[in-house]
Amino acid sequence: MSARIIGLGETVMDILFKEIKDDNSATCEYVPFAAVPGGSTFNSMVSVGRSGVPCKFIGYTGNNKVGHQIVDFMHRNGISTEYFQVRDNERAALSLAYLDINGDADYTFYKEEPLAATDYDMPEFTAKDYFLFGSYYSICPGLRPQVKDILHSACEAGTMVYYDINFRRSHSHQKQELLPVIQENCRLSSIVRGSADDFDILFGTRDPEEIYRKYISPFCPIFICTAGAGRIFICTPKGTYEFNVPQIPIEEIVSTVGAGDSFNAGFLCAMYDYSVCKEDLPDMDHSQWERLVENGISYSSQVCRSQDNYI
What we know:
alpha/beta, nine-stranded mixed beta sheet, four-stranded mixed beta sheet, 13 strands, 32% helix, 25% strand
């Protein structure tokens, strides 16, 4: 069986609003300008599918007009829906994303509490595959039994597991109860990625080496820390590698929604292209990490110049 990138996560319909300022007034207004299917891992998988890499997505949506739009979108973008459910008596989730003049988003979500399916299928994972998961979807109590089952199956098969923590401030009141689940996800992963914002919310620090030493390395040996337009750090048992991110002129930024998701997609597509397996990770040097990071940055930069959440 050939290698695949397999994603697990939520789907939403993102309705995007752009901030419009009146030069003659201190006030501003938000104007809707796009509606696109989204969700953190979902965004990554669309970029993967558009890159021509074989991919499958595990998740679900509601059996309504919005849900059918999402499924049709997946088909048109090369994502297998073999393990994707369309559930009756379930409403597709909506997200309102309000973009400021810098393209940064403030979100409002309209969705039901996620619940695991009583009956579901999962792929037969192999050591050649890459598995991407993360966000609240991977740690919420309602979905945890299913997520844990799929995650253990991937680990037992020797699959490369890439975990994007992506912890939003809206869940900060739950961080103490969710931290053990985040740690379990880290323990079962080959690579953990998080943004400086994630760790500022979780632990009150943005220092990548402190984060790695105290909070990641006890569970997972490979850590990627991103900081928007700031530098990218990869921390490993051999040392820390640092990479600059080329700056995008502010006038070229349309939206930063999906920027981190696109980095994940570009990074994983490069791993696929170079056939990097889990056993390779401990011995990789600066140049090997650099070509993966550069592809991630390329995908992310392209998305920031678009109203879409994917390349």
